[in-house]
Amino acid sequence: MRRGWFCTMVAAVALSTTGCTWSFVGFDPGRTGSGADATITPQNVKQLQLAWKTAPLGDPVNDLVVDDNAVFATAGSKLVAYEQGTGVPRWSVDLPQPPIDLFSNVFGSLGSAGGVVYAGNIEGGPSGSTTGGLRGYGSRTGAVVWTGVFPDSSPLRGPRPSVRAPLVTGGVVVSDWIFSCCMNEQILGVAVYEQNGALRWASTDGRLTGHPAVAGNTVYASVDTLDAYDLAGTTNCAAQPQLPMKVCTPLWQSSVGGLNTPSVAGSTVFATGLDGNLYAFAAGGCGQSTCAPLWSAPTGAGIVGGPAVANGLVYVANSAGRVFAFTAEGCGQSSCPPVWQSARSFGSFSASPSIAGGVLFIGSSNKVLYAFAAAGCGAPTCAPRWHYKTNAGVDAPVAVAYGRVFLGGHDGSVSSFGLPPGS
Questions:
Q1: pTM of the prediction?
Q2: What DSSP state is assigned to residue 113?
Q3: What three-state secondary structure class fits 173?
Q4: Residue 135: closest CA among 119, 123, 149
Q5: Which residue, 63, 29, 66, is CA-closest to 401?
Q6: What residue ranges do the domains of the chain occupy?
Q7: Distance in angstroms (rounded) separating the CA atoms of residues 8 and 20
Q8: Per-residue pLDDT tens for 339-369?
Q9: Which of 386, 372, 304 has the alpha carbon at shortest distance from 341?
Q10: Which CATH number fits domain 45-418: 2.40.50.140, 1.10.510.10, 2.130.10.10, 3.30.1490.100?
């Protein structure tokens, strides 16, 4: 499979890269949130203007990715493809749902690779069905071209689980899944599919609080704690007689709980906490089954979105509406101060930051899209370099691709921002 998060140079002598995609939520399998498109910079970001905006779909945009010259977005049970240059709809499909809505607040998520858009369902399907919890749609037509078949969950006495947040890496599709039954009792875990759609393995450890990330041969997932799994499904993995699938348990897990979506960069995996702290762990573990963080950093309010990592800095945005940047290598102490932070509160942030061309983008609950210089401003506190009133709150991370900034709104609209012609 082609790894869609790679960037294509438009010309060998180009000073900026404008052919880049944003194929996964968090940009790459490590979910670093750091894109390769360098068209928009701290020097020209103030020139950004609205290029197009789609009609609202009603439900909030859960996630969006950009690939194959299209913007793909999920909103409620809809998956819609828009032409990235114009915003004209390319196609739209309804994601399958079972007849009984047991867990309606589980949203679909997206990934794209090799001309296929992988979409998780709001719900998986009835027990005994063959629809599976994850489908691949042709990026040009919207036709179903791939199905990830999750084994029938009848031993769990309920419907087929829903599957979300797909990544494509190393010839496999990595996702998370949720099963809900029996007065909303929930079982959640990681699911790894072969290229042909067969399930390689799954975990059943508990409540996932963030989407999985992949680096090398390891899958990282926040299951309250940060857990690391063998991507190959060999170490700490075995068939389970009571479940129709191979089940893996963690290689190691963090000593800290309440963590969200991880990001992996180099030898470090970062995770945000509902306690308002950023945590850094050795990606290879510590030689024990439980590992303490290398260092942590307080922000003063809970963090819902994951971190972003770029150019030696790691970024987080908290529920009090503040953005923070920390040195990714730490500070030599167990608790580290920020390199810079936003000058004041900007509503509330629930999305992860997105970074490209040295600019950090993030949307807020106060219906504004903000852009900061990712390197800071030379002072401890920094103001945004640019902002735009969106008329809708923002829950999903921004994508930066094809020289544009793409934003999904709480009203179900998708907006595209670009530089003026000739700039």
A1: 0.89
A2: E
A3: strand
A4: 119
A5: 66
A6: 45-418
A7: 6
A8: 999 988 888 888 899 999 999 999 988 899 9
A9: 372
A10: 2.130.10.10
